[in-house]
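User: Teach me something about this protein's shape.
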Amino acid sequence: MKSTLKKIIALMLVFAFVFAFAACKKDDDDKTTSGDEVSSSVDADQSETEDLSEDASDDVSEDASDDVSEDASDDVSEDASDDVPDDTTEATTAAPKGVSLPIGGNQAQVLEFYNKQGNALKQYKGKVKVTKKDGTTSEINHIAGGSVVKNLALSLLPNDYAERDTLTFNNGVAGDRKLSSWLPRSYSDKISEINPGGNNGVKSATCTASGSGCKVVIVFNDDKTSGATALSDKPKYVSKAMDTLDLKESDLDPFVLESAVVNYTGCSIEAVFDAEGRIVKLDILTPANIMGDLTYGIIKLKDSNVVGRYKGNYTFTYL
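Assistant: First, the predicted structure itself:
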């Protein structure tokens, strides 16, 4: 407001002197004066008018500059303030945090990372496309009773390793399928419950760089079950991170299992993670060597030896 008043006053002074000069000039025309007096008077008035005009111009220029600068500053400040979203703080805190990849870490660090990120996948609420190939291949190393018995036994053993449907899960579901049950250990809400720092049956656990992410490889020591329920019992350590045999008595009909030992040998996990710590590829291998005594009617089938290898191969594309 002060600057505006200064500008108006300066302009009024300019016009006032211009009008005054015009009035004086009219009076001089009515009077009889010498040429020198007229010239001197005009020169003096012109000099004063020019001085006043320059002063007024300077005032107007300075005031206008101040006004423009202040107004522009106010406008820029207000516009910039308007452009900044109200939820700036929220957007910053909601940004995804970086994940520390345990490349070259010790066994406990690698296992803890696999547990955390693998279990997060079971609970993933975003959109992810999953391709899956899994199942078991079986072979009989030895069984008594000749080719007829062997062929019958083979027909009972699982040989179902194949491509499954490619499913896109959103918020953990795809139609009537749940992501948590489509992944290893379908009965649990966790992919892995390996004890990172204690007795865990793990032979080795390593993490190496892979592209912008990393690859984790976990290998188990031999694990086993034994007795009449060996085919359904869960091995102590291997079952903490992968599916194992789950055969009931009815699954073996017409054979009856007298006793058995199931050796889980060479079980391994390979998981590739992206830079954000999400699993993009997962390969599970669970070999099981079954040795035991069967009966087939009145025929005793001692020292039967069967090998089954479960494989689960998954790829994940985050959409």
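Now, about its shape. The chain has two domains: 2-88, 107-318. The chain is about 35% helix and 30% strand. If you'd like, I can walk through any region in more detail.
User: That's plenty for now, thanks!
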